[in-house]
């Protein structure tokens, strides 16, 4: 296990980057706690895998350092970093049995056969492959091979970190839930530092203690699921987390009020003068449809999502979403919306502005 420090780290795939836009990974400095479970979350091309490959040693950064427990490993080869990595697509030895594949990392480090047998049995039970241990990996399905790959990554207890690069892509949905649960249990039992790359918010939020949200090569927020939901530090976080995501509406902000097309609404905090691009952000869960309270909207359609209803509406020319309860009555004369002032965030140039509570 190790504390991982990213010190002034940045990376460009160009030989001579001339501006920030030339960097696939923008400059960052972060400490990730020893024994923490982190998810790197973001859309395709945001820099998640680049960052993971720098941590693992598969890629050398253009600038900055990687430290494990304060030791500089920036130029250390992968083998010297004592990490285990599981990739998006399965990497297994086809000529070996499932048992031999799982045992390989332990035998390669000279562990005695009694320990190897015990640990392999434990991992096989964890990934649901106890009855397949004597089968050759060749000819197994893609998701069975990926379970072997996951098991081989988890079989060692002494690694500094376990790195997962979208490991459940080829796994069927039911098995995804089971394997995520097993990974959480593994983390709880052994306290490995874990970093899990995914574009799936459900995977990230159910796996990680802290989610690292990335956008355009930059870490825009590190936080618990609750923090990402309640206080998105960047409009992308609000948009990407939640289904549907946060409503983002251009506004003018003065003191404890926001104005959209001249219409006033209350804010939970006071704000000074804001220049640049100013917007308010409010989750659909904190918007309420009514007959008489709030500001006018045009309801376009209502979608029944089972446990709740999603109201798609137009608000001063901007599309917004409102979430209503499963049993809430929605009628044609309900054409106004109000927002919970305590849960309205204010953004300047896409970044959240901290208001004055006084």
Could you give the order of strands across the largest sheet? 6-7-8-3-9-10
Low-confidence stretches: none
CATH topology of the largest domain: Rossmann fold
So what's the CATH class of the largest domain? Answer: Alpha Beta
Q: Strand share of the residues?
A: 25-35%
Distance between the termini: 44 Å
Shape: globular
| CATH homologous superfamily heading of the largest domain | P-loop containing nucleotide triphosphate hydrolases
Helical fraction equals 10-25%
**What is the CATH architecture descriptor of the largest domain?**
3-Layer(aba) Sandwich
- Average of per-residue pLDDT values: 91
Number of strands: 22
Structural class: alpha+beta
Largest sheet: 6 strands, mixed
What descriptive keywords fit this protein?
globular; 358 residues; Carbohydrate ABC transporter ATP-binding protein, CUT1 family; ABC-type ferric iron transporter activity; membrane; 4-stranded antiparallel β-sheet; Rossmann fold; 2 domains; ABC_transpr_FbpC
Can you describe what's shown?
Belongs to the ABC transporter superfamily. Keywords: ATP-binding, Cell membrane, Membrane, Nucleotide-binding, Transport. Residues 4-241 form the ABC transporter domain. The chain has nine helices and 22 strands. It is of the alpha+beta class. The chain has two domains: 4-12 and 23-240, Rossmann fold (3-Layer(aba) Sandwich); 248-353, no CATH class. Strands 6-7-8-3-9-10 form a six-stranded mixed sheet, with helices on both faces. Strand 21 (344-348) and strand 22 form a beta hairpin.
């Amino acid at each position: 296990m190790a504390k991982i420090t990213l010190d002034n780290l940045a990376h460009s795939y160009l030989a001579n980057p001339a501006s920030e836009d030339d960097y696939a990974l923008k400059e960052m400095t972060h400490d990730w706690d020893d024994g923490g479970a982190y998810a790197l979350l973001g859309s395709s091309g945001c820099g998640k895998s680049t960052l993971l490959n720098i941590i693992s040693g598969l890629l050398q950064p253009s600038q900055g350092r990687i430290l494990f427990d304060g030791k500089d490993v920036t130029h250390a080869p992968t083998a010297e970093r004592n990490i285990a990595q599981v990739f998006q697509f399965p990497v297994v030895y086809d000529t070996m049995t499932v048992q031999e594949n799982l045992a390989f990392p332990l035998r390669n480090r000279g562990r005695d056969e009694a320990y190897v047998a015990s640990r392999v049995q434990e991992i096989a039970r964890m990934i649901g492959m106890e009855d397949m241990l004597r089968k050759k990996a060749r000819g197994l399905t893609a998701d069975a091979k990926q379970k072997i790959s996951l098991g081989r990554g988890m079989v060692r207890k002494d690694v500094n970190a376990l790195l997962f690069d979208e490991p459940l892509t080829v796994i069927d949905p039911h098995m995804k839930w089971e394997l995520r649960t097993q990974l959480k249990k593994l983390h709880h039992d052994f306290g490995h530092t874990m970093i899990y790359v995914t574009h799936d918010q459900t995977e990230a939020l159910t796996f990680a203690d802290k989610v690292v949200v990335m956008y355009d090569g930059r870490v825009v927020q590190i936080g618990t699921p609750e923090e990402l939901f309640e206080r998105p530090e960047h409009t992308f976080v609000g948009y990407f987390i939640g289904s549907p995501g946060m409503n983002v509406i251009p506004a003018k902000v003065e003191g404890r009020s926001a104005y959209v097309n001249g219409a006033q609404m209350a804010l939970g905090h006071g704000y000074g003068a804001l220049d640049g691009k100013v917007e308010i952000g409010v989750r659909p869960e904190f918007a309420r449809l009514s007959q008489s309270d709030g500001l006018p909207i045009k309801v376009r359609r209502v979608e029944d999502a089972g446990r709740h209803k999603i109201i798609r509406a137009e608000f001063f020319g901007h599309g917004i979403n409102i979430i209503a309860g499963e049993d809430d009555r929605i009628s044609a004369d309900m054409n106004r919306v109000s927002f919970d002032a305590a849960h309205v965030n204010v953004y300047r140039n896409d970044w959240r502005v901290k208001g004055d509570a006084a």
